[in-house]
Specification:
- This is DNA-binding beta-propeller fold protein YncE.
- About 0% of the residues lie in helices and about 50% in strands.
- It has a five-stranded antiparallel beta sheet, with no helix packed on it. Strands 4-3-2-31 form a four-stranded antiparallel beta sheet, with no helix packed on it. It has a four-stranded antiparallel beta sheet with strand order 5-6-9-10, with no helix packed on it.
- The two termini are about 30 Å apart.
């Protein structure tokens, strides 16, 4: 079965709002597909589907090279529940939608989080550790597409990774280690550990002063009464310390900051019996950190991105294998993309590609 779309009510209104997206494209990873699907951002129509290596998780767009980087993390399965770890990152031409190269990071393994510094031409890829070495971040030259370094993060399983706007600092979330790793990207070394009770997605403010990190570690089986309060820990990057918590009703996995200063978080909703219910997109303001609204999305939201102008939010949901398209000013769902290929599910990584 090919990916498809269900358009929300008032489709003509949505078309008007999205007319400015003509030529833009949304890339969506199906981790069990395993595919990357491309949708027209104005009409939501499927343009193409590219088959990639098993278990693709995250994807990142390089606007300078017009390339997509897609990390294949495991042979099958998930973090701490897989049949073995892969070592490849697939490079895809964003315009022709063809595979350019497969970069093998071996002996590094389980590449996942991707963060781009387009000014310096560096891609940072988080990788899991081994018995002899902690997890870390592999540094790739985006021109030669070859690894040129590695930075240890002091934890076995760094998962998501973000960098400061000036390209000098990086922050790795660690699902099980009780801290967020702070690394100096110029010196290539770990500089601080910010105490956080296990962490998931994270995002950084446009001015680089704050990092927003989902904690504690989200569990698909649901939360227990012993778990720390769910929400977003706010890190002051100047002091590498927690300055506040944005509370949520449920555990959060993905976190994203838009170009318009909105903080988007995806809440995982699970019944006491472990059954996945509809997830929730909750929106806060970055500056005031007040709650602006929320809306139901698919089951198990796992990745969030937004359009270049910050008007639309996209929420990929693993269990329902859908992507919800949300108008952020009105918190109205405009469409739901079904990301199921050949009966497989698992919508995960997202990349918004502005037209050339």
């Amino acid at each position: 079965m090919q990916p498809s779309i269900h358009t929300a009510d008032h489709a003509h209104q949505a078309a008007t709002v999205r007319a400015g997206k003509a030529g833009d494209v949304l890339a969506v990873v199906s981790q069990s597909g395993p595919t990357v699907s491309f949708f027209d951002a104005a009409s939501d129509q499927l343009l193409d589907t590219v088959e990639v290596l098993a278990e693709p998780h995250e994807i990142c767009f390089d606007p300078t090279q017009r390339l997509l980087w897609c990390a294949s993390t495991y042979n099958s399965g998930y973090y701490n529940a897989n049949s073995g770890r892969r070592s490849e990152v697939t490079v895809i031409d964003a315009d022709s939608r063809r595979i350019v190269e497969v970069v093998d990071l071996a002996p590094e393994h389980a590449p996942h989080g991707l963060a781009l510094d387009p000014v310096r031409g560096r891609l940072y890829v988080s990788v899991e550790g081994s018995e002899s070495r902690p997890g870390g971040v592999v540094v790739i030259d985006t021109t030669t597409r070859r690894p040129i370094g590695r930075i240890d993060t002091g934890a076995p399983g760094p998962h998501w990774f973000v960098i400061s706007p000036d390209g000098r600092a990086g922050y790795a979330s660690n699902k099980e280690a009780p801290f967020v790793s702070v690394v100096d990207l110029e010196r290539g070394e770990l500089t601080a550990k910010v105490e956080v009770p296990g962490s998931e997605g994270l995002a950084i403010s446009a001015d680089g002063s704050r990092v927003f990190v989902a904690a504690p570690h989200g569990a698909f089986g649901g939360r227990t009464s012993d778990d720390p309060p769910a929400g977003i820990r706010v890190i002051d990057t100047g002091t590498a310390s927690i300055t506040g918590i944005l509370s949520t009703e449920n555990a959060v996995l993905p976190v994203h900051v838009t170009t318009t200063g909105k903080l988007l978080v995806g809440e995982l909703r699970v019944t006491p019996e472990g059954r996945q219910e509809a997830g929730r997109l909750t929106v806060f303001s970055v500056d005031g950190q007040e709650r602006l609204g929320s809306i139901e999305v698919g089951q198990a939201p796992l990745t969030i991105t937004s359009s270049a102008d910050g008007a639309l939010g996209y929420v990929s949901c693993l269990v329902s294998s859908t992507v919800d398209v949300i108008e952020l000013d009105t918190m109205r769902r405009l469409a739901r993309l079904d990301i199921a290929t050949r009966g497989e599910t698992g919508a995960h990584g997202l990349a918004y590609i502005p037209k050339a």
